[in-house]
Specification:
heterodimer; A: mainly alpha; B: mainly alpha; 65% helix
Chain lengths: 191, 201
C-alpha cells in the first residue's frame, strides 16, 4: 500500500474514533469545549507521530532480534509513558508558553488508547518506518478531525432546549452516531 | 468481622448500578462499543477484562506499602500490561478465532481507563479483600452493560441471537446498520437516555 493510500484510509475510512471505536474516553470527556478539543487533538497527533518512530526502533532493534515480540504490550506502554514524560520535561524547560497551553493534556495522553493502538497497528501490519510515521500522522489528524467536529456540534447543542433525559452524554453519543454515519460514506474510496 | 461484612458487600455492589463504570462514569468505552456486536464475544470480553482487573487489583493492593508514590503510575501500567500479556498468550493458545474477534481490543485492555482508574483510585489504597470486592463489582457492572447493549445490537442487527453454538432467529429482515459503528453510538445514546428517563442513573 502506498503512503498516500495509508494516509487517506487511516484518516477517513478507518477513522480511529468513528469507525474503529478507539480513544473514546477522551473523545467524550473533552469534546464539550472546542478549544480544549483542538489542543488535545494536536497533542495526540504529535505524540502519535513521534511514538511511532520510537516504537519502530524498539521493535526492530530490540524485540525482533531477541524474538520477544510477545512482550510488545509491556514494552510499548512503558516507552510511551516515559517518552511522554520526557517531552513534558523538555517542553517545560524550553518552551514555557507552549507548555502552559499544551502541557496539561500530555499526561492524559499516556493512557489514551489511540496512541497504543497506533503503535500496535504499525506492529501488526508490519509497516516500514515512513509508513509508520504516515500512519501516526493520519491517526492523529483523524482523531483531531473527529473531536473538533463533535465539539462544534456539542457547543451548539449546549444552547438548545433538550428533553431532560437526553441532556449531556446521551445526546453526545447520538451526535457521534450521526457523525459516524456520515463517515460511512467514505467507505469504498480506498478499495 | 461483623463490621467488615456490610462494607465488603457495599464495595461489591456499587459497581453494578450506582457507580457503573460504563453507564455512570463513562469509562472503558472502546471495548464496550467495539465488541458489542455479539453477545458471545461480549461475554468473553468481560471474562478477559475481569481477569486483568482482578489480577491487577490483587497485586497492587497487596504491594501498596512498597510502591513509591512518585512512580506509581508506571508501576501500575507494568502490572496491568503483564496481566494483559498473560491473557493474550492464553487466548492465542486456546482459541485463535476468539483472538480474531477481540482483535486489537484485547491488548488495548492495558489502557482501559476502568482498570487504571480502579487501581489508582481504589486498590492502591485499600485492603486486599476490599479491592477484590470492588473489582468483582466493577467487572459485573461492565459485563451487565456490555451484555445488555450487545443483546440489543445483535438482535436488531443480525435478526437473532447465537450463543455457544445455539441460534435463535427472531427478525426476518434485520437492520445491519446496528452492527456498524453508527449503530453502536446510537444504541448507546438511546440506552443512556432510557436509563436516565427511568431514573436508574
Amino acid at each position: 500500500m502506498g503512503l498516500l493510500s495509508i494516509f487517506l484510509v487511516t484518516l477517513l475510512i478507518n477513522n480511529i474514533v468513528l469507525t474503529r471505536f478507539i480513544g473514546l474516553c477522551s473523545y467524550f470527556g473533552i469534546s464539550s469545549n472546542l478549544r480544549n478539543s483542538a489542543m488535545m487533538g494536536m497533542a495526540v497527533t504529535f505524540v502519535a507521530v513521534s511514538s511511532s518512530a520510537v516504537t519502530w526502533f524498539i521493535n526492530h532493534f530490540l524485540l525482533t532480534p531477541f524474538g520477544i515480540q510477545y512482550m510488545r504490550i509491556v514494552a510499548f506502554i512503558l516507552v510511551i509513558a516515559s517518552f511522554v514524560q520526557l517531552v513534558e520535561i523538555i517542553m517545560r524547560k524550553t518552551m514555557p508558553r507552549f507548555y502552559s497551553a499544551f502541557g496539561i493534556y500530555l499526561p492524559l495522553i499516556t493512557v489514551n488508547c489511540a496512541i497504543l493502538a497506533v503503535n500496535l497497528i504499525n506492529f501488526e501490519e508490519g509497516y516500514s518506518l515512513p509508513a509508520s510515521l504516515v500512519n501516526g500522522l493520519a491517526t492523529g489528524l483523524g482523531y483531531t478531525l473527529a473531536i473538533v467536529l463533535l465539539a462544534g456540534i456539542r457547543e451548539r447543542l449546549a444552547y438548545e432546549e433538550l428533553p431532560r433525559s437526553l441532556q449531556g452524554a446521551p445526546i453526545a453519543f447520538i451526535a457521534a452516531g450521526l457523525l459516524a454515519l456520515s463517515f460511512q460514506g467514505f467507505a469504498g474510496i480506498g478499495g | 468481622m461483623a463490621e467488615e461484612r456490610p462494607n465488603l458487600r457495599w464495595e461489591a455492589e456499587k459497581g453494578i448500578l450506582r457507580k457503573n463504570p460504563v453507564f455512570v462514569i463513562l469509562l472503558g468505552l472502546c471495548p464496550f462499543l467495539a465488541i458489542s456486536k455479539s453477545v458471545e464475544d461480549a461475554i468473553w470480553m468481560t471474562l478477559a477484562f475481569g481477569f486483568v482487573l482482578l489480577g491487577s487489583c490483587l497485586v497492587t493492593s497487596f504491594s501498596r506499602r512498597w510502591i513509591p508514590k512518585n512512580v506509581r503510575i508506571p508501576i501500575f501500567v507494568v502490572v496491568i500490561s503483564s496481566f494483559v500479556t498473560v491473557t493474550e498468550l492464553i487466548i492465542r493458545a486456546y482459541s485463535p478465532t476468539l483472538r480474531e474477534h477481540l482483535g486489537i481490543f484485547l491488548p488495548l485492555i492495558t489502557v482501559n481507563c476502568i482498570v487504571l482508574g480502579r487501581v489508582e483510585a481504589f486498590s492502591s489504597k485499600r485492603s486486599v479483600l476490599e479491592s477484590l470486592a470492588d473489582a468483582c463489582g466493577m467487572t459485573a457492572g461492565f459485563g451487565l452493560a456490555i451484555v445488555s447493549i450487545s443483546f440489543v445490537r445483535e438482535l436488531l442487527g443480525s435478526g437473532g441471537l447465537s450463543l455457544f453454538g445455539r441460534s435463535l432467529v427472531l427478525l426476518s429482515q434485520p437492520v445491519s446498520g446496528f452492527l456498524l459503528s453508527p449503530g453502536g453510538f446510537l444504541v448507546m445514546g438511546g440506552m443512556l437516555a432510557l436509563l436516565k428517563k427511568l431514573g436508574v442513573i
